[in-house]
Amino acid sequence: MLINANELAGDTEFTAEICIIGAGAAGITLALRLGAAGRDVLLVESGGFGMLSESGAIGPDPDTQALYRGTMSGIDTWSLDRERWRLFGGSTLQWSGFCTPLTPEDFATREWIPHSGWPLDFGALSPYYARAQTVLGLPPFEYDPRSVAERESKPLLEGTGRLATHLYHFSAPIRFRDAYRGPILDSGSITLLTHANVTEIVLSEANDRVSHLRCETLEGTEISVEADRFVLAVGGIENARLLLASNRQQPEGVANSSGCVGKFFMEHPHYYAGAVWLETGRWDRSFYRRHEAQLIGPDGTTEMGEIEGLLALSRTTREEEGLPHVLITATGPSFLDGSETGVLGADTVWSLICEGDMTGYPLILRAEQTPLAESRVTLSDSVDALGVPRTDLRWAIRDSDLQGYSRTVEILGAELAAMGLGRVHVSRDERGRVDLRPLPGAHHMGTTRMSTDPATGVVNGDGRTHDAVNLYVSGSSVFPTSGAANPTLTIVALAERLADHLLE
Amino acid sequence: MKRRKFLGITLMSAVAIPLPLAGCGSEGPFPPDDDETEAARVLRAYLCADGSALASARRIGTRYLARFGDEEEARTDLRPLVDRVLASASTSDAITELEMSVTSDFEDLRVLAVAGWTLAETEARICGVLAVAG
């Protein structure tokens, strides 16, 4: 059932068994799973189904989207209302479709990564990764590059043992707005309430559970929502914002006795680090370019899918060197194809090309960021059109991470040279480190992190907040560490797992 | 492709990279001794370096040597390479040994960055000797 809050006659109260706040990838996945089990679900979404922009593309309505505006007091990143979209389907309307799971190591406590360690391991999430593949329109869950490469008779690059390959699948990309609007509206168990903005999470008198939500339309209609359980699924920045802004009863906000809400904000910094110069034709890089391949799932299901291998340092090397996880792309487009010539300059590139021996490719890093409490979401002094304090994002990266990225590039260069394949050239700063200027990946993680200890996290391993027994959080804000993997597959897998938990 | 040709191509690219001018042109950072001069002859053969490639090797070498406090410190660093080259039975043997040394450096991560390139330590010292005596 669809209810447009803008069309309500006046102030209204809703009740449901489970209220999900946010109809993005996590919220929609949860709603569908719970609705299919016959649970009474209210899915509350700030936006509508979008509108045509001047360019002819579908996008959020400007007034609703403006609720996302905020400030940035740390590393410059894209404006807060650019990469997050406030409408049914959320940011899946503009995501790239890159999918890979976190590695088993990403879930483990690593001595060289402070605050690392999830309260669940890869094995606990594996079955849900397989379900997430279906939700995202992907082929079966097979991410072991060795078995796939062997099946394709394509070589993997391992160097002297310091390199490893990670496998990516590519969703079409599936747009949740288009793919799941029908199933949501056709469900007899789900009520989708659009254009309703949650302005406050109100706690019971004992402050140990959520009593109700206060919502409001931009027109001024007030809505109250009561439910047995609530799931906050509005994204890595907004989850924290809403908890912090609900501070009438507790000054630190809801579910924030640990003080961790908003802290440990992580991105996947992307870097155009320089160039890789390879002897033309020497390295069969076919596995490292996007291509169609046969994939076989754990249940034996076979399907073709689009995949690509990315390089990284091996787990052993990262452990020995104490390095974060960094994924490396160095396969195109080449400078011959007109891509940026990078730090060398056109003349030098041309002289190398004229030699006819080497082809240059941009060296791109996609990096894990070590959790850092000072990298955080806070509330700014200004408020939005509904009177809710806006977000200030202070994105920061540990200096040790920057050193680690520099060392990763150094080791890559040594490995390629040791194999006689080519050379790495990067620009360096005055300290001799690779000159890295981060571009954001639009992956917002860590601001309501998981922990078994209520003193060091916001939610437990099931996603339930430590402080409010009927409040859960879904999405990348619960990630204690970021790994280097694009987060969407893990977001959906965690939502699937939370659905099972709520159904128990 | 031989790794020394990789380095040669690396050096060609150094033409366009602004480097400190101290010691460039016809003079090196400091006057070479006889051993360094003799070793440089072999090293030029190793790199197949002439013309612009040699100039680039000297530029990279000059940049490498700039990290040392003084001439004595720089010479101390280059000395083992010079001795090893001169101790080889022939130019061909020296080249083979240099190639093995470079490979070993990369495999054991004895690397450093000079002018943006990740070089083996042996390669950097080769350039250093050429900067002095090339």
Describe this structure in words.
The complex is a heterodimer of chains A (504) and B (134). Chain A is of the alpha/beta class and 504 residues long. Helices cover 22% and strands 25% of the residues of chain A. Chain A has 2 domains: 1-50 and 66-136 and 174-266 and 444-504, FAD/NAD(P)-binding domain (3-Layer(bba) Sandwich), CATH 3.50.50.60; 147-170 and 269-367 and 398-437, no CATH class. Chain A has helices spanning 25-36, 62-65, 104-107, 122-135, 145-152, 176-179, 181-186, 238-245, 315-321, 346-355, 399-418, 488-503, and strands spanning 2-4, 12-21, 41-44, 51-52, 58-59, 70-72, 98-99, 163-170, 190-194, 197-203, 210-216, 222-232, 270-279, 291-296, 302-313, 326-329, 358-367, 376-383, 389-394, 422-426, 471-473. In chain A, the strands form 5 sheets. In chain A, strands 1, 2, 3, 9, 10, 11, 12 and 21 form an 8-stranded mixed β-sheet that branches. In chain A, helix 1 (25-36) runs parallel beside helix 12. Chain B is mostly helical and 134 residues long. Chain B has one domain. Helix content of chain B is 65%, strand content 6%. Chain B is built from 6 helices and 2 strands. In chain B, strands 1-2 form a two-stranded antiparallel ribbon. In chain B, a hairpin with a 2-residue loop joins strand 1 (111-114) and strand 2 (117-120). The longest helix of chain B is centred in the middle third of the chain and has 17 residues, at 71-87. The radius of gyration of chain B is 13 Å and the shape is globular. Mean pLDDT of chain B is 81; it is low at 14-25. The A-B interface holds A 160, 274, 277, 279, 282, 343-345, 347-348, 351-352, 355, 357-358, 409-411, 413-415, 417-418, 420, 422-428, 432 and B 1, 3, 5-6, 9-10, 12-13, 15-17, 102-103, 106-107, 109, 111, 113, 116-118, 120.
